[in-house]
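INTERNAL AUDIT FORM
Audit reference: QA-55
Scope: verify that the stored structure record matches its stored sequence.
Auditor: D.O.
Record contents follow.
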Amino acid sequence: MSARSWPAAYLAASVLVLGALTAGGFMQPWNTPDTPSWLATCHGSARVGIGCFAGPRFPLYRFVYDALTLGGALPGLLPWAQDGLFLAAGYALARSARAAGLSDTGAFALALALPASNMLLIWGRAEVPEILARAALLGALAATVRTASRSACAGARMGAPVAAGLLTAIAFFLDPGQLPFMLVLPVLALWLGAGLVPFRKSWRGAALLGVSALLPFLLVASLRLATLNDFNIVSFGGYDMSGMAAYMLTPATVARLPPDLRGAANGILARRHTLIEAGVVPPVPGNSLGHRSLLSETIGYFDILARFYDVLLRGAVLPLRHSNESWVVFNARMQRLAFATVRAQPVEYLAWVAAASARLVGRMLMLNLPFVLASAVAVFLALARVARPPMAVPGQDLRILLGLTGAYTIGSGALACLVAFPAQRYVDGTGLLISAWPIYAALQLAARGEASPQVSGEPAAVGVPSRRRR
């Protein structure tokens, strides 16, 4: 199949994957452990400040869920709607990249990274906002490419950055871990626009994109500051980050914390010790000399810390919330404790970030189905053609693919490593586009094999176009 027919191939791959998921019974809604918090109603919090915005989660996904399932009456529609939006956004990204100068092979590779991705196969039916946030990001990337494209008309140059900013805002309202895209996408617009449009126009589009993403954030954060005394779009990050602090705290660290935080820190230490004694949370293992070091465990056995992160949060941190304390106040208190712990133990924090990054990179490569399969195919094709001259790769393809995959991967994975840990769903989301590289290599190698000259003495196949015509 020619790379020029990639839209038809993308449609066929999408239908094939969705058909296989349906036949296997994997298109039924999946109520995950996090689903209740995302679909929670306001209850008594409606009396405080701005109601649902005072809860642990931002309420956008609940509104979207109600719209996609007709108020919850038809929950079976959710997987189809989520997967459909995700695949449509991926197609829009590939089309935009193709219009900006990416080759048919590059657009084909970018599109094929999505139908067999872990995000679609595992999280497409989950009643959590992961895949919808990724769909919004793919749409934002597509609009960012349009922003930087020299082929865009004046109206499109105005509309594309605004659309990119608003889609970015939707993404981080669905998943606040995507906040870095407010900065990442304007930089991507400048990267893609370099050499294609005058710098003044490129800078103008990037600035408009950034402002379009920033304004919704400022609106919600300012509203929450005025009503709840909390300048965040959601009150969850402090509580989530306190799990890292719960691992790092020691009696010596508690002595260096501000006096008003020491009671909570001692409470976490006591409950952590109880959980360890009960066998709920494993202790820090000793090395060959019997020495116990969290620093050593963080670097060598981070997956153990990740596995029990939520257990420690629920068992050692959540009980610290007072009976009459709002979630906003509790989250802010835990945020102060987490930041104070990081300042008191900077070396342990840097080790944590390094180990979390290693977990993210390792898992998004080795546990990424399309990446692994495409890499195996590319290696096989490369070995089969090892005696052939090296293939020439268009520089425009490298620049666009590097910009898109680099910006997406950095923007999507940064906060997970800096403030908590990369859970598997974040890993699957962050590694979404890197599969385009081995797919691209495999397609290039396959096309090179088809276009290779015939061995001397053998007649050329009838109907095979020449290398120049291809």
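Auditor finding: record pair retrieved intact. Confidence is low (pLDDT under 50) at residues 44-49, 452-470.
Action required: none
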